[in-house]
């Protein structure tokens, strides 16, 4: 059977993927069931019964899938352990959602009755039509003739083709991205965020949604201006031109909002209607070019297709300070709109197929249309015309070589005075050329309204997807959808308000280049996403669309960035500034999402390459840094040990917090696997720059040995063991103590440096954590009971519930304060967090008694460079001889000066240890004797045979011979403790050279007694012993 891991009371099924796309984040929920329901049956595969399943798409679905049930394949433990258990083969039962610890709304598919009401579009109605309507804008009917008048046919074609290159490359990149997995709602935001991560996606998503909202105002104002021009011609102005534009704009916006709120189906019908009008208008223009020109049209510059006009208009004629780039900047926004279909990706039947097909075909059709219309109008209309039917050529007038002159009209006056007609002067050229002028006006209305409607739908959809991901928590209110299509009504209202604001007060001439740059920024990131994903070479990058190239995508990104500056340099800088600000904001907030972005893949590649590069370089003393294995157990149970190690490794070296699971291997492996992710998450949440590692073993020493040998990667390999002092060594089991001291021996054998921390209150607070969790559990149960009582007598029980809750809270906080045990616990908690606080002015006393390569001096120096320890100064204590104290001090001063390590004092401790030998009645010696008494063999007071038997049976005990042989070293530890108490009692931290226990010479209990008596009754103390290889140098 599959047993779900239990972490802090929550059931976690390892079969489920936590990095979901839809919904992207779920709150964790506790469930009472621990075991998934199974039944003992088998499935026949290849002629025999087996628990293994054949590959099936349902095994690969995410929870919350709307396209089918998520099936759970047999776990590896079920397949691996079942025959060992000697039982029948279990099979997962197809059970209702929620029965296996997953909330029903996550695992269940959408109800059939709701599925029946979904409105999903195909690639034509959903993508092709929308993109064509958005690309065919006002430019087609009003400004295209002016563009070709300025740039000429030759450069005009270059302008259109360059725009098509940018949009086509972006379309290819988008096609690759959206065919690399299931596409949900959110359009450009979804594609960018899932490719580059929430930082890029969150920043571009917000400005892209805002750009669409403001674009609604721009298109509506364009419609209103055209309508007001008609009213002006009819002398039907209501108030004045500006206020008429505002009134008509607001009324139009209300009508468009009504269509949008009616649902996507109505909006799609409106788009089809507007497309028909637009197509009729375009056809009407082409028909008009072949209808013979009247005298009135000829006077306005229209002469049907003429080779002379084509030749004259082929070359550029830039006027009024215009250049190729300024003309390009005016035209390029007309080529945008390629994301109109992608923006409603959540409403498409098959986004993976529809977006590439519809978008690329729309780019092709609209590009051909722009080229055809532009070439036709530039081949039939001259640049300048007076509009006077009497400006014909008389017999005595000599032609100046112009096409109009050759066709019988004299427009030479336009060289000295401004004319109203021609490509350069009349924005209504297409209306004049067309077969029926009002149809062009209708086409203009259709182009503006369709673009406005598309933007009005796109902005809320993109914004809703952004809010659903909860990247900006303050905007989560807008994530809620309504109705059968999950319509973002709140987003519609917000978009409406933004558009109205810009219609009423916005200077659209200033806003327009910013909006164009916002769209271009999203295009650039789409191209860069495709390049980045291809560059990362992640195995998950397998787009079904193969007609793309990573370098072409990079070129597209560069072109988009260049076009941003061509359009408007200050708008480009403003766009980059806004995007950078949002990127930093999202990075700092660190949203709890994981989408497997290419940024993660590239980070991994860079890490591997850097590690390989580092491995090819030999170590150097100048680059040495402590890289620590910290035996914390579960990291939160020994916070002081983690904090002190983190203090000198953060930003300097590697820190591995390690836990050893001691017990039967199978049970411990399961427990270890359950703890891995949770503990690493805890470290990340506490902002500890450390990794969590664990080992399962039958005893503590074997597990530690495994970690010491196997941890690390190349040069990123630990070189220092950080361990806590075993406070209970006198009451611990003999084997347990032998394993503990054995770890120290192993560390020295593997040439590790060793750091041992001792706090007088102890390091382990696991018992306090367990007590707090139990109190919280009881409090939650009590609150649940009180909530159940509220409905019985609402008024009476309401106040009673609040009162009892207060009593419960006070009881859990106040009542233990009177308990002596709780006071002890509070002192332990305060001691365990003391290294998390800023250390005040004080000293770090370094007792550098033995040269171990410099680690005893390097670690305290690193601590003084930390912000929390910055006010602490180093005091150095060294051993010396009484007759040469000043000389020893001068030598140490010279050495520290060479090492460039600052200190405030050097104290030389003279050789006074012999005094203690004749003072066996000193309290400290008596304390030591009492400490080791339970572990002494006392073989000298027994008969030889009895003593020999005792030695064999209790080989771990301290013999009289051993104690006598090591009496001088024992006295050294006792005397050092006295000196430490005399000189360093007020220090913030004491660092002492660790005595080494020679293997086979010193018993484990005697060695622990040395360490105990050396560090007893002192402030926080670290015993340090390097591996006797230099870690300090004075060479440059």
UniProtKB/TrEMBL annotation:
Transmembrane regions listed in the UniProt entry: 140-166, 172-192, 204-224, 244-263, 272-293, 324-346, 358-382, 436-459, 492-512, 518-536, 548-571
Domain SLC12A transporter C-terminal residue range list: 638-1036
Any one Pfam family match given in the protein's UniProt record, by short name: AA_permease
Limits of the Amino acid permease N-terminal domain: 39-95
Keywords: Cell membrane, Chloride, Glycoprotein, Ion transport, Membrane, Phosphoprotein, Potassium, Potassium transport, Sodium, Sodium transport, Symport, Transmembrane, Transmembrane helix, Transport
GO cellular component terms, semicolon-separated: apical plasma membrane
Polar residues: bias regions: 808-824
Domain Amino acid permease/ SLC12A: 126-629
Main subcellular localisation: membrane
NCBIfam families linked: 2a30
Protein name: Solute carrier family 12 member 1
Gene that specifies this protein: SLC12A1
